Recover the amino acids of this structure.
């Protein structure tokens, strides 16, 4: 089976302004949602209490709310996955620090009149911990950005590094925008998903960049836009195929992986689409705007090659005992 | 046959055998097997904070007791012994005793002494040195860890782990705990300070508030069963629990009430003997965690250094005895984070993620075979070996599989075939350029190499960042992803290459169809 049979070279770069405009609109929209709507912070970051309770029949939300409100103010009660399971969320003020009598036990007591209940999960996060986790998450993001910048700059050159990192910001902002817009709970798993999609989208971008590097080395094309068109077109079937397999897999995770993992798989689903888009349409045009010069790079590659050969020569002479 | 073998295939086959052999134990529940995280097998995860400043306070109190004991013994008369947040104040009544007292104070480590002379007396103020304060806090944390660990061991729980987290936190992981009731008693056990103190009851004064009590250098504590009933007790306490060597559960002889029988060490026994000898007819209050358990009248001098505390229920006696035996917590602990998952939810999570894993796996395998023909099947073989390898490596290193970790494996399945997609696309390209099949395969692997390496290393960087800054379950995710990436390099690049070399050497007919291309 072949998706892209005729080795067609798509002229993508002439439409680069359009692609980037689409991205810019999405980014503005995402930032707007993030700053006006904000995030639905889960207790991992905001602190608070979450208790997941399973009943042996359909859960009576109104009754549960009445019972809970006798003891706790401002609880949110929603069904979780099935009709017989509910998630009770309390804000951080209720995340008492008393080890002996924590909120889980208290809620169990409160729900006693409802008959048999199964307290399936109790999560309590103090506000101090939540803030620490936020900081750590941010550090992880920065740390991997820096690591990626250094590695790509070392393997390619700085413009490739900057372009790939800008593409990463693009992916992260739009994914977070979707998370904000659709009111998906932001928990630790979502942070993991963001970092994963960074790795994933970078994977795609690197494969395209690798082709560009190869074309610069092996072809005679001197026009960057033409060269990028070739590189992107030649890697297109690979990019689409890999994105498809990964997308299918994440889709099964989203559909069958259970309620707890949903925020994670949602973020990844969006991230894969956005990441694929940015690898094809955004990362490469950035090279043009950043002023990448094919001739300079060729010269540099030639010099590198020359140095390598000289070294080789020296070594041979040295081993031959001439020096 | 030997000629057809190549080193790549040999390595790949060995890896496959290794993967399968070390995967089996995880499925028949033998070591080495994958540890399931608390979110999958059920259990409880606690992060506790230690109130270091309370340890400093109690250090001050103990030092005050020591001073009282020394001055009594050496017959140095002091008055107005008071403890503050970080200081001890008292008055030495006879100025001439100064040098004698100073010599004694030199033996107490970690304190600074300030003296203000009055007309006849000298006012002493003692501080803990800043180093001593830091050390006390640090000791408190380490001792708390030790204490909690031995309490949990004594309680008979399966595989509890108690470790230090950061500078002032303790991480407790209890995979054995599944019901809320078990959780409750364990949390009780962990957090009970079990701070035993014996006080002399102040029979001379009367006080209704804590402020009044302070006037007489006393403290007002309430009865354990009846909070309205208060006792006025002389500070500092006569003894504290640090001198306990043993505590057992039993029943009192006369009333047959559940009780804890404790034994003191020789120093404690001496102090206890001296005190009871001097105070026959007066009351002695037995205080645990600032609650008065009982205040019996001293009938006679109690030698031998043993005593008893009556408690409400046998269960309470059990928990308290363990706590007293394993030593008191040097400072109270507070709950910063708790995550508990019931066994049924863990089982559900395993089931759901297994469904996702298998569905995703089947889709990818079928897709590859449909799209790439024989070369897709070769990639599928590599993918299967890759899965075995991930499980085997995790089992050998005793890594923990968490729910996000499961998601990581599912994701790896999607991404692991990427290398093969890149390679196959390269091979197709070369075939279209008119290269022979053999040359196309060799060229395909060579051309694809740099892209695959760069792509995988950058993903690995993200995984390392996650591992370095992640906590708990996220670390599990980073580990599975990193292992998956590394295993995929072995299977998807080396393994499939070996298979092709073998197929070529054995003279199998490989056509365009083998790469999913139309002839």
């Amino acid at each position: 089976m072949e998706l892209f049979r005729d080795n067609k070279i798509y002229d993508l770069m002439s439409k680069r302004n359009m692609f980037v405009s689409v991205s810019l609109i999405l980014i503005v929209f995402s930032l707007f949602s993030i700053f006006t709507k904000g995030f639905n912070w889960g207790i991992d970051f905001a602190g608070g209490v979450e208790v997941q309770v399973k009943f042996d029949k359909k859960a009576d939300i109104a009754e549960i709310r009445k019972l809970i409100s006798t003891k706790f103010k401002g609880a949110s009660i929603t069904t979780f996955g099935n009709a017989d399971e509910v998630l009770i969320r309390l804000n951080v003020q209720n995340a008492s620090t008393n080890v002996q009598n924590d909120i889980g036990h208290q809620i169990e007591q409160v729900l006693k009149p409802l008959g048999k209940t199964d307290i399936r999960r109790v999560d309590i996060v103090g506000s101090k911990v939540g803030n620490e986790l936020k900081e750590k998450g941010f550090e992880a993001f920065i740390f991997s950005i820096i690591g990626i910048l250094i590695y790509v700059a070392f393997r390619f050159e700085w413009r490739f590094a900057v372009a790939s990192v800008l593409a990463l910001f693009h992916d992260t902002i739009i994914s977070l925008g979707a998370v904000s817009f659709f009111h998906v709970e932001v928990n630790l798993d979502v942070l993991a998903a963001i970092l994963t999609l960074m790795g994933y989208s970078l994977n795609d971008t690197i494969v395209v960049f690798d082709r560009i590097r190869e074309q610069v080395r092996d072809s005679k094309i001197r026009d960057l836009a033409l060269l990028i068109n070739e590189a992107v077109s030649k890697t297109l079937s690979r990019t689409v195929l890999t994105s498809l397999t990964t997308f299918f897999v994440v889709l099964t995770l989203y559909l069958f992986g259970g309620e707890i993992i949903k925020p994670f798989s949602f973020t990844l689903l969006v991230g894969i689409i956005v990441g694929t888009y940015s690898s094809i349409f955004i990362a490469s045009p950035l090279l043009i705007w950043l002023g990448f010069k094919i001739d300079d790079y060729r010269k540099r590659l030639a010099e590198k090659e020359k140095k390598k050969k000289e070294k080789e020569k020296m070594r041979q002479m040295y081993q031959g005992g001439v020096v | 046959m030997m000629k057809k073998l190549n080193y790549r295939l040999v390595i790949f086959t060995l890896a496959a055998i290794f993967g399968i052999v070390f995967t089996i134990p995880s499925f028949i529940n033998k070591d080495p097997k994958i540890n399931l995280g608390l979110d999958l097998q059920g259990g409880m995860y606690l992060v506790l904070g230690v109130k270091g400043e309370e340890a400093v306070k109690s250090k001050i109190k103990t030092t005050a007791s020591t001073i009282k004991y020394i001055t009594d013994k050496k017959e140095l008369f002091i008055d107005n012994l008071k403890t503050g947040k970080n200081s001890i104040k008292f008055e030495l009544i006879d100025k001439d005793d100064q040098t004698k007292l100073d010599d004694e104070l030199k033996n107490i480590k970690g304190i600074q002494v300030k003296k203000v002379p009055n007309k006849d007396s000298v006012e002493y103020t003692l501080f803990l040195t800043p180093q001593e304060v830091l050390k006390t806090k640090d000791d408190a944390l380490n001792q708390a860890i030790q204490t909690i660990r031995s309490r949990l061991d004594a309680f008979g729980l399966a595989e509890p782990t108690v470790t230090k987290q950061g500078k002032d936190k303790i991480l407790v992981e209890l995979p054995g705990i599944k019901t809320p009731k078990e959780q409750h008693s364990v949390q009780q056990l962990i957090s009970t300070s079990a701070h035993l103190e014996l006080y002399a009851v102040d029979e001379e004064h009367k006080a209704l508030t804590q402020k009044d009590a302070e006037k007489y250098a006393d403290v007002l504590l309430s009865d354990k069963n009846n909070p309205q009933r208060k006792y006025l007790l002389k500070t500092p306490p006569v003894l504290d629990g640090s001198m306990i060597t043993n505590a057992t559960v039993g029943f009192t002889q006369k009333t047959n009430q559940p009780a804890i029988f404790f034994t003191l060490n020789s120093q404690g026994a001496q102090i206890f003997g001296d005190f009871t000898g001097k105070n026959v007819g007066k009351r002695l209050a037995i205080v645990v965690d600032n609650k008065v358990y009982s205040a019996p009248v001293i009938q006679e001098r109690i030698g031998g250094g043993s005593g008893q505390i009556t408690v409400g229920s046998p269960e309470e006696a059990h928990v308290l005895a363990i706590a007293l035996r394993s030593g008191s917590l040097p400072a109270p602990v507070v709950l910063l984070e708790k995550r508990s998952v019931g066994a049924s939810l863990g089982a559900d999570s395993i089931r759901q993620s297994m469904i996702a894993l298998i569905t995703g796996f089947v889709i990818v395998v079928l897709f590859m075979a449909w799209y790439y023909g024989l070369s897709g099947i070769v990639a599928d073989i590599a993918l299967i070996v890759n899965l075995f390898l991930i499980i085997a490596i995790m089992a050998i290193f005793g890594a923990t599989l968490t729910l996000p970790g499961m998601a990581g494996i599912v994701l790896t399945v999607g991404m692991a075939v990427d290398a093969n997609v890149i390679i196959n696309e390269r091979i197709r390209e070369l075939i279209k350029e008119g290269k022979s099949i053999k040359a196309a395969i060799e060229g395909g692997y060579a051309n694809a190499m740099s892209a695959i390496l760069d792509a995988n290393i950058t993903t690995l960087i993200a995984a390392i960042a996650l591992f370095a800054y992640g906590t708990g379950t996220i670390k599990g995710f980073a580990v599975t992803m990193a292992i998956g990436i590394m295993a995929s390099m072995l299977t998807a690049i080396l393994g499939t290459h070996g298979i092709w070399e073998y197929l070529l050497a054995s003279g199998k007919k490989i056509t365009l169809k083998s790469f999913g291309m139309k002839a």
About this structure: Chain A has a mean pLDDT of 86. Residues 224-256 of chain A form the longest helix (33 residues).
